[in-house]
Amino acid sequence: SKVSETELASRYGVSRGPLREAIRRLESRKLLERVVHVGTRVASLSVSDLIEIYHVREALEGMAARLAAEHMTAEEVRGLYDV
């Protein structure tokens, strides 16, 4: 789908400068595509791209859970048992 800088800036209450920087970052990560005389669109990902993304997410989420568990206070651990 097409990405409108004006609409996004209005919706999120941000100026277009920081929004353009965010769009450039998403383009560098191949999540957005800029086409001359067409505009910016959300990138289409192949099945292999999606599988790669999920492998990376799986690794990162596991690491994040391990680090969170290692740094939890005793009170936070007790809070888990209360749920």
Q: Report Rg.
A: 19 Å
Q: How do the strands line up in the largest sheet?
A: 1-3-2
Multimerization state: single chain
- How many alpha or pi helices? 4
Low-confidence stretches are none
What kind of sheet is the major sheet? 3 strands, antiparallel
Structural class by sheet pairing and helices: alpha+beta
Number of separate strands: 3
Q: Residue-averaged pLDDT, rounded?
A: 92
Assess the beta-strand content as a share of residues.
Answer: 5-15%
Helix content: 55-70%
Account of the 3D structure:
This protein has helices at about 5-10, 15-30, 45-70, 75-80; strands spanning about 1-5, 30-35, 40. With about 80 residues, it is an alpha+beta fold. It has a 3-stranded antiparallel sheet. β2 (about 30-35) and β3 form a beta hairpin. The longest helix has 24 residues, at about 45-70.
Key terms:
single chain, 3 strands, 12% strand, 83 residues, 3-stranded antiparallel β-sheet
Can you describe this structure in just a few lines?
The chain has helices spanning 5-12, 16-28, 47-70, 74-82; strands at residues 2-3, 32-35, 39-42.
Write the layout of secondary structure elements.
Layout: E1 2-3, H1 5-12, H2 16-28, E2 32-35, E3 39-42, H3 47-70, H4 74-82
Antiparallel strand pairs: 1-3, 2-3
